[in-house]
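FW: tagging you since you asked about this chain on Friday. Here's the raw sequence from the shared folder, copied in full. Didn't touch anything.
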Amino acid sequence: MLQFMRKHAQSWLIKVLLGLIIVVFVLYFGSTRWREPAEAVVTVGDRVIAFGDYRKEYQNLLDMYRQRLGANLTEDVVKSLNLKQQALDNLVNQAVLMMKAEEMGIRVSDEEVRAVIAMQPAFQRDGVFDARRYEQLLRYQRMSPEEFEALQKKSLMTAKLQDIFRQGVKVSEQEMQDIHRMQSERINVELFKLPARACRGKVSAAREDLEKYYADRKDDFRVPARAQVKILSFPAESYAGKVDVSAEEIRSAYEANKGKMPPVKGQPPPLDAVKGRIAEELRLQKAMGVAAESAKKAHDTIYQEENFDAYAAKNGLRVQETGFFSARELPAELRQVRDVENQIFNTRTGEITPVLSSPRAHYVIRVTARKDAVTPPFDEVRKDVEERWAAGEAQKICRKEAEAALERIRKGEDFRAVAREKGAEIVETGLFAPGAEIPKAGSSQELINAVFQLSEKTPYPSEVYATGDGTLVIPRFKERKRVEDGSWEKQKDILKVILLRAKEAEYFQAWLKETRETMEKNGKIKMSENAQKL
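HL: got it, structure written out here
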């Protein structure tokens, strides 16, 4: 256990939160409905995960990250998150959990579900469950009682399954002290930094090298299908003046959400302090409904009369026209629109999409032109091929240079002298805490883990590490200090709870992983051909 804590000391709180997020996401964003095998992406036992379920799960993930990251959710970030695999894993994990819960005889009755719902303060008035408020709040979340109750049932089944793991998890005083001690540590290191560009001049390619590189990676140079569109927008704010919000609606929304609001002196903010914001949010939600009606009317008229521009002119609507774009490089105005890539690239030129929606607007989109995907010939992309080939070769050379430098340093040669010879930069981080980015080196988790294993007796790591920009890094231990703030007595109770949750999450996730692997080996989880096309 101590080894586990040392390895994850800098991120133990994050792991607890991520563990909880994983479980919540599986339960509350999972949308699996068992459909006909013809639509199957994956089968888990006799359960079928359909393509529609996958698309909804993927969109939920994308929306969640958009809300968290906003404009920082770039195409590169989306790629690094591997959302397609995340969505598929969420659905498979959900199905595995339900299957195992049933095999273990775990049951949840309708009475248990009703009791849990009735006890939730958001659905109560004066301490008593209020059916009207319950239905009203679900409408705000665009969810039917049947859908919500099904999710609650899954949640309870998983909670009972997790309880089995909780029974055997214990936390000792020593473990809590070790965690507290490690969280109190600060470390200072020097960094040997050799950027890959420093080795760029050491590589040159013959034409045959580049042609082979291109032939092996043609898909990397493929220009994807592109489309050009015209957009009619129906933003909620344009319709906000046409709706009213009652005091009762504001109070109901406040009661449902006050626990999520930033506290004031440890208590939820008073209604008077937030009712303006709540009213505005409810007004926009209602306005979205009015906007949807206008968008639907526009869609139906344009579909029948094929008069996109004329309809816009007649109704005072502004038409936005884009340049050509691919599904991976959407124009800014379309990045928050649900399922927009799929709809646009499955709509023929000259036709319109169904009404599409973002969190704050609805859209009718006409595809005006498109270009098919194409792989350009070598000579057209030679410069790009050469740049990529050279970057890869320079990275390899720099890694060999850095590894040779590390070997010499570990044998006793002067750290700074070797760095000067190799053309590497030496920077000092200053004291920093576990869990933070390494100053002047970024957030490489492997490098962070390695740095916090260093000491006076082991001043160097056993390997070289690369940062996100391709820089090769060798850290050298300089000093370690503890910050004693007298917080042990105040924090030990919460540390115990957090460490318990961390261990429970670790054991539960390990069990889930092992269970999935066993089921895959035994043929109980089967990926269809459709899964390869996601």
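FW: The mean pLDDT is 83.
HL: agreed, and The two ends are 39 Å apart (CA to CA).
FW: great, closing this out.
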